[in-house]
Amino acid sequence: MPPPRIAIPLPTSTDPDYNRRAWPQYAEAITRSGGTPVEVPLNVPPAATAKLIATCHGVLLPGSPADVNPQKYGQQPIEQCNPADPARENVDELLLQDAHNLRKPILAICFGTQMLNVWRGGTLLQHLTPMPVNHAAGRAVAVAHTAVLAPNSLLAAIAASAAIDPRTPPEPRTSNLEPRLSINSSHHQAIGIPGDGLRITARSPEDLVIEAIESAPLEPRTSNPEPGFLIGVQWHPERTYSTDPASRALFTRFVAAAAAWQPLAPTTP
Q1: pLDDT class for 177, splitting at 50, 70, 90?
Q2: What is the DSSP letter of 177?
């Protein structure tokens, strides 16, 4: 079977230098995990974008220097809010709609996570006031803080699987401790209220800022298909792919889910 094709939009329509620096990192992580990265441009007609993403098996929403338009979650922008990028938002919405309709795997990162949450009807905190954690630390800080993971989450299971990597012996843990990850951080906004069908699966322990979301379990008697791979993280695992087993495990599980994805069979009346 050919490698799964992963749609990755260009991060921004306004800063080519940022795209040249950032997009290849996501693409390399996907390639090294066994997938084929597919660049989704931001300046073509929606029909052309839809045709391209129809050929893909999964969606990766990357970071961006922009902020999601606050009017999309019922707020007016405050002074600290960065300008929106309508072209990026439009493409993300096409990708999210396609993935939602066809149950394609989604991995969202930083801005991508915020976009996912808003698209699902959630809200954002437009600016994190000074806190014990420097969430805007930036790419120069390899480890900004830790994130506490929900023990019964897919994210926690992926992080635990990274402990089998022979290059990184696991640290001893007692059974009553919640799993934690050491993460980088490059954001000044965060999730406020999670969107429909999403649950919180990681927080910064010092200030309780939400650091990850994923699909919420379905109700026991629902007739809908089980939710597929859907994880959004506020940090940048693509930057630590070479050095962090948990980052590699996250991308590997995502690409594996994309490889296993099959189009939904048509329903019969």
Answers
A1: low
A2: S
Beta strands in 13-88 (DSSP E): 36-40, 58-61
Instruction: Determine the Cα–Cα distance for residues 197 and 214; give it in Å rounded to an integer.
Output: 8
Instruction: Give the range among 64-78, 106-120, 174-188 with minimum mean pLDDT.
Output: 174-188
Distances in Å between the Cα of 88 and the Cα atoms of 9, 45, 138, 248 are: 8, 13, 21, 26
Strand order in the sheet with 36-40: 36-40, 5-9, 58-61, 106-109, 230-233, 210-215, 198-203, 145-149, 180-183
Catalogue all structural domains in the chain, each as residue range(s) with its CATH number.
5-168+175-217+226-260 (3.40.50.880)
Mean pLDDT of 1-21: 97
Residue 136: which pLDDT band, with cuts at 50, 70 and 90? confident
- pLDDT reported for residue 142: 87
Tokens found for residue 146: 């830790």
CA dist 209 and 110 (Å) reads 13
Q: Please give the Cα distance from 187 to 168 (Å, whole number).
A: 28
Residue 216, pLDDT score: 83
Examine the pLDDT at 6 and tell me if it is beyond 50: yes
> How would you label 230-260 residue by residue, b for 16+ Cβ within 10 Å and e otherwise?
bbbbbbbbbbbbeebbbbbbbbbbbbbbbbe
In terms of DSSP bridges, do strands 145-149 and 180-183 run parallel, antiparallel, or are they unpaired? antiparallel
